[in-house]
Amino acid sequence: MWPRHTDRAYPMASVIPLGRVSADAGALAGAKALNLAAMMRARLPVPDGFSVTAEAYRAHVSALRLGRPQRDCLAAIRELITASELATETAAEIRAAFRRLRTPLVAVRSSGTAEDLPGHSFAGLYDTYLRSTDADGCIGLVKQCWASLWTERAFDYRDKNGFEHAKAAMAVVVQQLVAADAAGVIFTADPVSGSANRIVIEACWGLGEALVSGKVTPDRLVIDRDTERVVERFVSTKSVETAFSPTGSPVEQTVPAARADKPSISDAIALKLARQALRAEKLFGSPQDIEWALAGPNLFLLQSRPITTLGKPPGRTVGAEAKSWEDRQVWSNTNSAEVLPGVLTPLVWSTVGEFIGDLLGSVIGRLGISFGDNPFIGEVAGRAYTNLNTFTGMVRRMPFASRMNQAQMFGGQNLKPEDRAKLELGADDLPDIKVSPLKTLLKLPGFLLWMSRHGPGRGREWIAASLDAYEKKPRPDLTRLSEQELSDKAIATLLQMRVGGEGLGYALGGMMFTSVLYDLCKRWFNDPTGINASRLLAGTGELRSAEAGIDLWRLGRLVADSPELRETVLPAGSWTDLRPRLEITEPGRDFLARWDRFLHLHGHHARGEMDMYNPRWREQPDYVLDVVRSFARAGDKADPEVDQRRHAEEREHLKVALMARLRNPVKRWVFDYVVRKAQLSASIRENVKDAAIRVFADTRALVVELGRRLAARGVFADADDIFFLRFPEIEPVVSETAGNDVRARVAERRAEHERNLALSPPAIIVGKYDPVKHKPDTVDASAELKGLAVSPGIVTGPARVILHAGTEQVVPGEILVAPFTDPGWTPYFIPAAGIVMDQGGLLSHGSIVAREYGIPAVVNVGPATKLIKTGQLIQVDGDTGRVRILK
């Protein structure tokens, strides 16, 4: 079961100096040692060391008589490997080789004999140890490396890729450890785009562990291979580094502020490193991924392996074959995570994809463009991700849209360089969006006419008519409907969305005017951050979700202004207990009338309200009551309606001042026209979405009642099990033709839902999502964060970090820090002094509401909720997009 091998150059060898590892010793010393030895022979700068061979490993485990390796006994295997004594002769050889290194500082790394085969990379699967030790300590570290061959992750990787566990073996490389001033990796070809002409360097201060572990965003340089010039340079704020403690163990420490923003390597060192790396590439005959370290003026190459994830550059293949179409798909949640946050249930998935596809298809179809079978939205670990291949292919074929700054409008502008590089899609990466240039040209006049009929004036009329129709629609008693009627009505309600193309047309028209306004301010008034455009759009009114916040504030003021209501409403207690007490007094009945009106108008809202799984406000009266109580206690918060009137005056004064700077009368007319249209459009996108949310809320009510009925007759274990069926699966369950596996199907999907909740996929993913390959986005701690300025003004105050709406309240004067916001978060905006969001763009809900309320806001910050803590004093600069952590 644990076979032994010999190598003809070193029969039964246990320890070999690196310089003596021959080119045919791969099965004995492993790929890492083989490559290091080759670089040493080529006189490349490699730290001295030795290989503890795979034969030593086999001899060690053979003596343990482990039997057939099984996943459930991996911990026991690791314990046996590390606890058992090494053979006397092997231990003596390691001690002698260790003494020849003449340093206690060593790097002990795996050198697996199956490592980095074509198309596979074992990088990061096995343990590495960097520390000061003695000879016996070195033996212990070697055994720890061997044991890492039997972690669950390594075991699963071999299973997934078809490697036999019984043949798995590991050599170990022990090298002199470089006490690096800076370190990183260099790729002799761009691993993302596949361009062989781009040499990519990533660097950080200290040892490379801070980079590998994701604790710091590295500096990034790109060198043109032909000209040997640095053509791209990104310098990050590197607030932490890994260095050696006085005891010789690696420790994470803060980088002094004077050094944090400086380049970790100079251009001269980068060019020197590139030349050394190209020598290694020539030596091995393929593009290489090389770890390096810089100590003083001296460069060292620590290991080299082929780039196993090399992409396909436009127009040609790299390596033996091109990446598959699936592997070249680029997925992003930079906007979809705001609209559809979190892990979605199967019921929601079965409606959202079709709903979004139908809406967009109805618009681009007017230009003779069709997605065909290409996906626009997809599921990644249960979350909604946009397919950027399809999106880019569509945008490049649509008039006007190709000129719009999508990142600024919707989010994604603050991406790291490595993520931005993933978005550089070549022509070969774009799907065959079905379009005939002649057909599009012929349809263009009709499309422009259709867009002209979807101006902001008509948009407001359409929204008002939709709201009026909703108000007049009869509300049936759901408890009186049969299961079949509930199912049919839910489907019929959702079908209303199929005619939602009109609403999307009004939303697109409004977005176009907003985009043009920001562009004009940038071009005509030297306003790169868009502060003037944001001020011109502040407090324009008629935003339904903002009205929900104001109506809640009014309920709070009603309580605050009435001694009787204060005495009744403010003490702790549930809505169920409170309502009967309100019904017996005149002030109480007045409050109830306004309360009921509020829930009628706004009760369809919820956190993550596009997800029907989430309960609506009307289902959670205790949450709404807590918000009303917090507003009643706030007392000193200014009336938001007064703020809106003040913003209206400021808008008009700013518009007059800006128009006075335009000497050309045509420009003045154009600017005045665009401002008026953009101000009329400011609320339309959100109000169109509000109309859609009403439909989703009505559908949820039907589904919840149906789930309750099916649970009552034993079909489901719980009423909300219905959300773990897809919509087409509900009808067979109702008609009792679904078979007997419904509960098992639901249980399996619930388990998958729970597994997905534990995952943290990054914002940008290339290919099929793999939790091992696609690590969560790294967070670089910094005292200053940069995002997108969306609502002007500068404010300083304590932070209130809230990850889930409904869990806590914002105290007046606090700055709300949230991952995203939708109308379910609106109550937090009234008392907030400022807004900071991880995600978002100029047209995101939080941005629009912040401008409506006149609150300074910065969005698209990235890791704000991970770096800022509740209670910290922060400054939000809504003019420049900076967020500073003061203390």
UniProtKB/TrEMBL annotation:
Residues 812-881 form the PEP-utilising enzyme mobile domain. InterPro entries: ATP_grasp_subdomain_1 (IPR013815), PEP-util_enz_mobile_dom (IPR008279), PEP_Utilizing_Enz (IPR051549), Phosphohistidine_dom_sf (IPR036637), PPDK_AMP/ATP-bd (IPR002192). SUPFAM superfamilies: Glutathione synthetase ATP-binding domain-like, Phosphohistidine domain. It comes from candidate division WOR-3 bacterium. GO terms for molecular function: ATP binding; kinase activity. This is Phosphoenolpyruvate synthase. PANTHER family: PHOSPHOENOLPYRUVATE SYNTHASE-RELATED, PPDK_N DOMAIN-CONTAINING PROTEIN. Residues 28-313 form the Pyruvate phosphate dikinase AMP/ATP-binding domain.
